[in-house]
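User: Please work through this fold.
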Amino acid sequence: MVAGALFWTYDMFPVDIIPGIAASFWTGDGTGVIMAFPLLALLLSELQHKNIRPIIHSALSLGPKFYSYTILLPMLFAGAGFGTAILEVGGNNLGYIIVLPVVWLASREGIVGGTLAALSANMSAAFVYAQIGQEDYSVVELQVLFALTSAIGLIIGAAFDERKQVEDKLFLALGEADKA
């Protein structure tokens, strides 16, 4: 709002577009927080205990297969979805398909996979969209799509991780019950 007021004060744009600019700033900032916070929170949770080795060991133990399909699959879908704008197929925008690999990877790999897939999908989609130069989506629409992709990766990934923790605890409890 401060930026909008300053631009309006110096007659850089008309008053009637200030709500759109405010929505764009809030959506963009919210998307940035949704995409960056989970990765930062995971890092800070270990750093709080002054123990960075588990983070490094955990990241290295995931292996190249995890990183290759968690990063490359969303890139392919982003290229396919936003690349159809070049073909101009009946005015249909297929950018929303970037959500599909995020959902799949979050349900297989948890919050780390979902967050990494969402980040990869969003960055790839922004790159492809900037390269093709089409204006099928407004900036606010892209930001909302990116925010939803990130939120979906977080929610599904968190649900997967919670379910896995409960299953592990149940397995341990059943094992102890069988011993008794």
The two ends are 64 Å apart (CA to CA). The CA atoms of residues 57 and 63 lie 11 Å apart.
